[in-house]
Amino acid sequence: MKKLLALALVLVLALSLTAVSLADEVVVAKIGDTEYTALADAFTAAQDGDTIVLQHNAEISGYVSTPANASVTLDLNGFAVTGGALDVYGGLTVTGEGSITAGAKHAIWVNGAGAELTVKSGTITGGTGYAIVANNDDSTAKINIEGGLIQAGAEGSGTLGLFTCQATISGGTILSEVDNTNAIDLEGDSTLTVSGGEIKGHDWGIAAFGTAQLTITGGTITTADDEGYAVTTNGNAGQSATVTISGGTIRGAELGAYAPSGKWTITGGTIEGATGLYFKSNSLHISGNATIVGNGEARDYDYNGNGANYTGDALVIDSCGYPNGISDVSITGGTFRSANAKAVACYTYQQNTPVTKFISGGIFTSIPDSTYLVTYAHNLSRSDGTYTVSFGGGDDASAAAPAITSPKTADPGVALYAVLALTGATGAAWMGSKRKEI
Question: How far is it, in rounded angstroms, from Cα 205 to Cα 255?
Fold first, then answer.
């Protein structure tokens, strides 16, 4: 009897262990009707066009690679992927509600030549590195952000690290709220086009370094409420990123945009900060419907060799001897508004050459200094708050710029002065008119 009882106990124990073992074999993903107990196995089996649908939270370790010669979809389906990183070698599209969280450094690494990641929804959170990073041997990798929430995970990390890739952002939220983080680092030969979505960085919204190309046609780019530059380049020698802005809203707590170097072309959109745009070297061209706004208190110019101190001006041009030099500056249109300081201000550090004769059009809340205008002023007339300033052409340097006084007006608010260049055979006719701020 004792032997039978002992045998029965052994059988019961064995059955219970088997049950526990079976319970551990949870189905975490499916491709069609095929079930997988490990997400890595599902990616290994996936063929071009397949959709992997999560059935349970998936814990992964190390790097889980996507198939190199296939484009697949990962439907998060309300579940979470944690514990490692996805390594994209082919095409991967992330859809569905749910999350991917880095186990250590990055959550998703776009690693293969020609690899392509598209994020349509879900929450992706980085670790000590980036939420999403592209860093391979060439710039053929692609990242497309169409929706979802992508966020930094640790102090000193980042959200998107775009080092060698072609990237687009048309929707979603790119967020870095922890200290010492940027929403997007754009470097190398990478390109980024922002047409929509929300980008918010704690320190910087978008930082474009090296020979990167940044194009902004829409969307919103901001920083933390008390510090930061919404868009910035790098001022080191040889740094010459290309920044083209034709739309969108760019708003920084300190500077809307900081241009220590690079080739900047601005034809639209709104750039706003305590100083809206602060330029130091390379080239700057502003035209069209661009709006530059300085909303900070008026402060004296104070040279900063590792950044910029805001002055309250809408646009600052700082001739301070930065390594790449100032090659070309022009303003042919746009609106420049400052709440407490100048619409446009040029400053010179030490013995550097001041920038002159670069404005030929635009609307300003303060009349630009006469040295900023592109030719020689001959006369000034005023009638009912309207300025008309005529400029002669050719090399007539004898005409002195007249003193410009405030127009007579009964309108409250800020005066906007429009400068319009009408070039003809005999020179350029300038007109300045007072407009009520809307």
Answer: 11
Sole residue written with tokens 């709440």: 339
Residue 373 is given by DSSP the state B
Q: Residue 418: its pLDDT value, please?
A: 54
Residue 42 has phi, psi (to 5 degrees) of -65, -45
Are residues 385 and 407 in contact, defined by beta-carbon separation less than 8 angstroms?
yes
- pLDDT of 86 reads 97
Per the listing, tokens 């249109």 go with: 333
- Return d(Cα 85, Cα 101) in angstroms, integer: 8
Contact 389, 360 (CB under 8 A): no
Rounded Cα gap, residues 229 and 255, in angstroms: 5
Beta strands 29-31 and 51-54, pairing class: antiparallel
- Mark residue 188 as left, alpha or beta (left: phi above 0; alpha: psi -120 to 50; beta: remaining): left
CA distance 106 to 317: 39
Q: Are 238 and 267 in contact (CB under 8 A)?
A: no
Q: Alpha-carbon torsion 357, 358, 362, 368, what sign?
A: negative
CA 240 to chain CA centroid, nearest Å: 16
Instruction: Please say whether the beta carbons of 37 and 61 come within 8 A.
Output: no
Proportion of the chain in helix, strand, coil states, percent, rounded to 5: 10, 50, 45
Q: 80-137 pLDDT, tens per residue?
A: 999 999 999 999 999 999 999 999 999 999 988 889 999 999 999 999 999 999 987 6
Q: Partners of 244 in the beta sheet? A: 215, 265
The model's pLDDT over 361-409, given as tens digits with 9 standing for 90+, comes to: 788 888 888 898 886 533 343 333 323 333 444 444 333 333 333 333 3
Q: How far apart are CA 43 and CA 149, in angstroms?
A: 23
